[in-house]
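Researcher: Structure prediction, please.
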Amino acid sequence: MIVLDTHIWVNWIVYGDKGVSRAILEVMDSQPSLAVSAISCFVGECRFGVSFLPGNGRVSD
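Model: Predicted structure follows.
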């Protein structure tokens, strides 16, 4: 198992396989499972969680 870095996870979710490098995809594919840190998903007054990104203009359509 590997724990995905927040920006890797967000790019992969938003842009699919094109959002991460081939090397990262190969590592992800080689693992039996993937994890994301709880702080990456934190909802609330957190400048680091995914909930912060849309309102900050960091993620868009």
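Model: The helical segments are 6-15, 22-30, 38-41.
Researcher: Thanks, that helps.
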